[in-house]
Amino acid sequence: MRKALAILAGLAVLGAANWTIYERERHLAQGAVVLLELAPLDPRSLMQGDYMALRFKVEVDAFGSTRKEDLADGRIVVRQDERGVAAFVRRDAGEPLAANELRLRYRVRAGRVKFATNAFFFQEGHARRYERARYGEFRASPSGELLLTHLRGEDLERLGPR
Asked: Based on the domain organization, do 147 and 92 belong to the same domain?
């Protein structure tokens, strides 16, 4: 009986993990490409390897630069220009979106607004490839969830290994 329960629990865990992987892969394949202007903070962490701490211009435009202790998780609406770069329009109140608008989900953690991630990790010794980063390339799901896929330079070229 215990053995059967352990096998069933193991299968449930594997099923849940595989479903999550499937959902993320689908998000990457079908999500809308959106570019958010970056405000890089820190190029390196000795404990975690090389990374770039990220902050986004839409955060500052939407919420200012002060701590957000009283702010709850939610969504903002952004408008994409002809290059795909998103700019803050308004906080989401559920109203219909225009053709070039998207909802982006944010979370508030430790008094800071977070869109998808607050860091981009890269292979140790490759910091030079990312020094020119000006935009984060994301895949956005219809619900506003974001996955960071690449960093881009000033001319919107992808940075990193070829």
From this structure: yes
Q: Is residue 22 domain-shared with residue 42, that is, in the same domain? A: no
- Spatial strand order in the sheet of 44-45: 44-45, 49-53, 119-121
pTM equals 0.76
The single-letter DSSP state of residue 159 is: P
One domain for residues 102 and 23 = no
Rounded distance between C-alpha atoms, residue 62 and residue 91, angstroms: 7
Dihedral in degrees, nearest 10, Cα atoms 25, 76, 36, 32:
40
Domain assignment of residue 73, yes or no: yes
Q: How many CB atoms lie within 10 A of CB 63?
A: 18
Look over the chain and give the mean of its residue pLDDT values, rounded to a whole number.
83
State which residues form the domain around 97: 32-152
pLDDT average, residue stretch 106-123: 84
pLDDT band, very low/low/confident/very high, at 45 (cuts 50, 70, 90): low
